[in-house]
């Protein structure tokens, strides 16, 4: 399988300030309605896990993991983002999910993403992690609307459609109208909204009740901007119901994929323990295949075991054993032994 990553010595692309680029192609317009997106998740949605999800039931759009624009534009940091930006052509349309607060870095990165073959750029304005938000990045940009607007315009330099993923507000749900108005005025291709505030994290139910008012705001300010909803959506069927009820354009599933790796399948059905464990075996194989560009420790794989090892006799004991493994081969050996005993 061919894969794409930095094939030059991590050269930072320079651009001329003020040079205008026209949009190359807005793939968002060609998607089905509603379309489905796998949410970007740190240390989760890399090229390995995206291929596992594709095998189980692929969404219409993939985002990368969070990629730091500061690192991308710094000679000593570029190698750290190499794996995050690795993808294969069969994953298209691929969107680079980026974060930071430096418009010049966003300009440079937008050109680089176009050269690497990405179909779009998505800006993170929703990450609630304290050491990100407190520095005015991620959801911290909700408190810096002028900077947020400047970042969006800078990200258009490479000619790719620019989208934004954000939250309803920083501390209070009532911030949503003022904040989303600012974003919708920036002429973006798609707005993905996690229906919670930064303060709420994921500790309360998503505010689905606000979808009608948000849609009215979008229709009034930026009818050409697509509206994607995220938060407490476990599977495609729930997403279809929301789309029919509220008339939204897209559905984004994040944590739901940990409970059901088949969340995006078009015709839901019961899956055997073998099907779940086969997905785990696929992830092991891909982990080894991409080890050169994704040099992650086996402990990073441990978080995924709960996705596949559940709901069958002996699952708890097997999962406990897997958590003590130190290599992909050890995981395979345990799975082989478990299969012989069943």
Describe the structure.
Helices cover 38% and strands 12% of the residues. The longest helix has 17 residues, at 273-289. The protein has helices at 47-57, 69-72, 78-81, 103-116, 130-133, 145-155, 176-184, 211-221, 236-246, 256-259, 273-289, 299-302, 305-308, 315-322, 328-341; strands at residues 35-38, 61-63, 67-68, 94-99, 120-125, 162-167, 190-194, 226-230, 250-253. The protein folds into two domains: 27-259, Aldolase class I (TIM Barrel, Alpha-Beta Barrel), CATH 3.20.20; 273-341. The protein has 342 residues and is α/β, with parallel strands linked by helices. Strands 1-2-4-5-6-7-8-9 form an eight-stranded parallel beta barrel, surrounded by five helices. β8 (226-230), α9 (236-246) and β9 (250-253) form a beta-alpha-beta unit.
- Main sheet record: 8 strands, parallel, barrel
Determine the CATH superfamily of the largest domain: Aldolase class I
Distance between the terminal alpha carbons, to the nearest Å? 33 Å
Based on CA inertia axes, which overall geometry fits? Answer: globular
**Helical percentage:** 25-40%
Which strand order does the major sheet show? Answer: 1-2-4-5-6-7-8-9
What is the correct CATH architecture of the largest domain?
Alpha-Beta Barrel
At the third CATH level, what is the topology name of the largest domain?
TIM Barrel
Low-confidence stretches: 6-19
């Amino acid at each position: 399988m061919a894969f794409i990553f930095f094939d030059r010595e991590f050269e930072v692309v320079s651009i001329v300030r003020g040079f205008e680029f026209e949009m190359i192609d807005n793939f968002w317009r060609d998607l089905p309605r509603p379309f489905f997106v796998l949410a970007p998740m740190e240390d989760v949605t890399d090229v390995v896990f995206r291929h596992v999800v594709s095998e189980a039931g692929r969404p219409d759009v993939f985002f990368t993991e969070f990629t730091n624009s500061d690192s991308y534009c710094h000679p000593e940091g570029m190698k750290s983002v190499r794996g995050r930006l690795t993808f294969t052509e069969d994953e298209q349309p691929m969107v680079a999910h980026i974060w930071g607060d430096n418009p010049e870095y966003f300009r440079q990165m937008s050109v680089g993403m176009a050269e690497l073959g990405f179909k779009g750029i998505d800006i993170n304005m929703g990450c609630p992690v304290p050491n990100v938000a407190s520095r005015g990045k991620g959801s911290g940009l909700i408190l810096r609307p002028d900077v947020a607007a400047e970042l969006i315009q800078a990200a258009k330099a490479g000619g790719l459609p620019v989208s934004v993923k954000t939250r309803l507000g920083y501390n209070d749900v009532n911030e949503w109208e003022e904040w989303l108005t600012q974003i919708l005025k920036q002429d973006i291709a798609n707005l993905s909204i996690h229906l919670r505030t930064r303060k709420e994290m994921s500790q309360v139910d998503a505010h689905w009740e606000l979808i009608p008012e948000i849609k009215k705001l979008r229709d009034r300010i930026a009818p050409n901007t697509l509206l994607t909803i995220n938060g407490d959506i476990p599977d495609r069927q729930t997403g279809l119901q929301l789309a029919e009820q509220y008339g939204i354009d897209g559905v984004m599933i994040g944590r739901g994929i940990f409970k059901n790796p088949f969340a995006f399948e078009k015709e839901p059905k019961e899956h055997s323990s073998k099907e779940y464990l086969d997905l785990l075996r696929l992830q092991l194989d891909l982990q080894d295949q991409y080890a050169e560009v994704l040099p992650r420790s086996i402990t990073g794989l441990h978080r995924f075991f709960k996705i596949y090892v559940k709901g069958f006799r002996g699952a708890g004991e097997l999962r406990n054993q897997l958590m003590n493994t130190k290599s992909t081969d050890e995981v395979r050996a345990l799975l082989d032994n478990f299969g012989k005993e069943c």
